[in-house]
Amino acid sequence: MSETDKQAMLVVFDCDGVLIDSETIFCTVDAEALTRLGHPTTASEISERFAGVPHQTAWSQLSAQHNLKLPADWVENLLLECDRRFQHELAPIPGAANAIKAIVDRGDQACVASSTELPSLRGNLDRAGLLTFVEPNVFSVSQVKRAKPAPDIFLYAASQMGFDPSETVVIEDSVIGVLAAKRAGMRVFGFTGGGHAYSSLGSRLSEAGAMHVCRSMDEVTDCLSSQ
Q1: Residue 167 contacts residue 10 (beta carbons within 8 Å)
Q2: In the predicted model, is pLDDT for residue 1 greater than 50?
């Protein structure tokens, strides 16, 4: 089959830890906060347990585990601290813009589907210099009923883009994201190129169902070219 005969596909990028190197900031802020509460931990330990998990869910589990009595605005204040650090520390994943351009130049389409609330999602992509590459195709779990690992966000993104699940490839850095993509009936590549990646992340993504595990955006582009 020639390139002109090849059916177009949709590539759905998760955002945090895939397009922007934000998970490492989230995990650092959470680790510092838990340490201040008298439970020393590292950003890597937070990443291994909670990468891809909403902050509210993570801190609910931590509160129960450590019998913490946290103020009602605890998570909100942590997210404000993350946003403050984003202003100076947030960066795109190396090669992310080139990967998106390569997809579009090949005649395929790309979009973003994330667990981050839509205003913050668009703001973070803009801050990292990536919004123009995916605009207006940015979708948030706030637009669907259920969060990952339910498949809702990926099914919604594909429907908005006009693609069937069988025509869609998802790029994910978390186990719950891989599970969500699999439940949507989509192919999924694991990604370990973010600053928050820990040693067993690749194997965990494979065990969850990722058909490839890519360590960089160059590897993502190479794997996509064979689909």
Answers
A1: yes
A2: no
Find the helix or strand (DSSP H, E) in which 153 lies.
Answer: helix 152-161
- Residues with Cβ within 8 Å of residue 223, at least 6 apart in sequence: 189, 212, 214
How many CB atoms are located within 10 Å of the residue 214 CB? 24
- pTM for the model stands at 0.91
Q: What is the C-alpha to C-alpha distance for residues 141 and 56, in angstroms, rounded to an integer?
A: 14
Greatest distance between any 2 Cα atoms in the chain: 62
Give the separation between CA 88 and CA 137, rounded to whole angstroms: 26
Strand ranges in 36-84 using DSSP code E only, listed in sequence order:
none
Place of tokens 């600053």: 195
Structure tokens at 73: 């605005």
Task: Kindly report the number of other CB atoms within 10 A of residue 38's CB atom.
Answer: 8
pLDDT at 50 over 60: yes
Q: How far is CA 100 from the centre of its chain?
A: 15
Question: Closest by alpha carbon to 221, among 93, 102, 92, 111?
Answer: 102
Q: State the Cα–Cα distance between residues 125 and 137, nearest whole angstrom.
A: 12
76-29-152 Cα angle (round to 5): 60
Q: Alpha-carbon distance 22 to 38, whole Å?
A: 25
DSSP state of 8: P
